[in-house]
């Protein structure tokens, strides 16, 4: 069995997340998604709109995801790869080169992001009078 893993906050779940999960799941037989806990996000200087439990529930509902686990610290990736017998670690290419050291444990792939959408863009659009990101603002 080929098991794939990815990590992220996955706040304001959108079609870019779905497409990432779909691409990752197509690489193997099982997809594990590690969702950053609220405490870990605070250490990273990030705050999510939804709580960890809400984000984990949303991610778990996606048909491409087989298991959700909490991401609690930076150093857990190598341990998870061994614990879950991971074949491939995949993440967005905005992290390119950041996790190359994991290639001694499994394949590491950096996937292109869905260009026209991001949680940050959604948050910024909502803050800017609620106009959709792809709509011309006046």
Automatic annotation (TrEMBL):
Highest rank taxon of the organism: Bacteria
Alphabetical UniProt keywords: Nucleotidyltransferase, Transferase
SUPFAM superfamilies: Nucleotidylyl transferase
InterPro entries: Archaeal_FAD_synthase (IPR050385), Cyt_trans-like (IPR004821), Rossmann-like_a/b/a_fold (IPR014729)
GO MF entry, a single one: nucleotidyltransferase activity
The UniProt record lists the keyword Magnesium: no
Domain (Cytidyltransferase-like) ranges: 5-124
Pfam families linked to this entry: CTP_transf_like
Cleavable signal peptide: none
Keyword presence, Transport: no
UniProt protein name: Adenylyltransferase/cytidyltransferase family protein
